[in-house]
Hints:
By secondary structure, the protein is α+β, with helices and mostly antiparallel strands. 45% of the residues lie in helices and 14% in strands.
Amino acid sequence: xxxxxxxxxxxxxxxxxxxxxxxxxxxxxxxxxxxxxxxxxxxxxxxxxxxxxxxxxxxxxxxxxxxxxxxxxxxxxxxxxxxxxxxxxxxxxxxxxxxxxxxxxxxxxxxxxxxxxxxxxxxxxxxxxxxxxxxxxxxxxxxxxxxxxxxxxxxxx
Length: 157
């Protein structure tokens, strides 16, 4: 993906939301060599956004690289961290992928599966905009928290 113009406006208020702050924290946690140290929060989140131009640059068939896998893991780790902060129970993301980028993402709270997503074409993982990414995360979070509330006996195991 070319690194030309950024797809995120640095003044976008979505950057200040709890979700984006946690996502930046997760991205920085994956940076064990300090390569992302000098990047702004908007620069860190920019690769999550796939504009139509960026989407055209990605081949239809490809294997996901480590940067994409880090973004995928950070996204689901962020949702798990937000579940933990809301219900005070440990949430564990589990991602199982083939080398071709097909698999599943689960989030477990106790013995309860609060999220189960089929992953396809992970090398094309991204969102149309920052607000759409946040909306998707909010949707997953609300369903997960509803499941924890409905099945608290299983979630507490």
